[in-house]
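Format notes (please read before filing issues)

Several people have asked whether sequences and structure tokens are stored in separate files. They are not. Every record keeps both together, in the order shown below: the sequence lines, then the token lines. Line labels are part of the format and must not be stripped during preprocessing.
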Amino acid sequence: MAEQQAQIGVFGGSGFYSFLQHTEQVEISTPYGDPSGPIVLGEVGGRSVAFLPRHGHEHTLPPHMIPYRANVWAMKQLGVTHIIGPCASGSLQAHVGLGDFVVCDQYVDRTSARKDTFYDGPQATHVSAADPYCAVIRGLLVEGCHELGIPVHDGGTVVVIQGPRFSTRAESRWFNQMGWHAINMTAYPEGHLARELEICYANISLITDYDVGLEGMPGVKPVSLTEVFEVFSRNNDKLRDLLFSVIPRIPAEQDSCGSALDGAVISGH
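Then the structure lines:
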């Protein structure tokens, strides 16, 4: 592998990278095509950071067209060992309010036909997803939210839908009744692909809306893009403060995420 150019990776919306120090853009090509755009390299608290807006720098890529494999591979190519993946999300539960952060510990995949593995054969590889998110980064994110006064839920399940459409009322009712907490279109397969490359990864679901409007909450209207962007812009400052607080604390060494392939590869006979 080439010399490490970054330690920490961040996938997210445009706006964060403008606060990085000493930035430069790098173009990377991968065996899986080009990533969503040039990767911005910078520094936070003495740590080298690689930032990539998953939708592209001009937000031109809808969720189902994001080159997830290329994005994660590019991070690995830069030497990244830990990734934080914030996602704008809808709430599926009344107690998960607008502006809350959910540091998820589980996901449910409801996407279809996305390229969601690096292991297409000939060697069969089955990576466990029982505990899909890095416990160390999760703990640091929750701790950081408490310190900064950001409303946070320690653990929660995000259901990831295909997009680009939003949910029907029937789908949203089902997700709510299952007890799932947040809904978005981008948390999968990004997180699992990172795990397949033994990169520590954590998701933050940034609550911007109440999906189609939760039952028992009269007056709550179905999600609209206007509402999403209004709340997300307010969350952006909180997210930036959280990342700047947490990134310097992420340990250089990896936890069990760094050995996710142990026992996952089926050897031929």
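For reference, the curators noted about this record: The helical segments are 68-77, 135-148, 169-177, 187-196, 225-246. Residues 47 and 248 are 6 Å apart (CA to CA).
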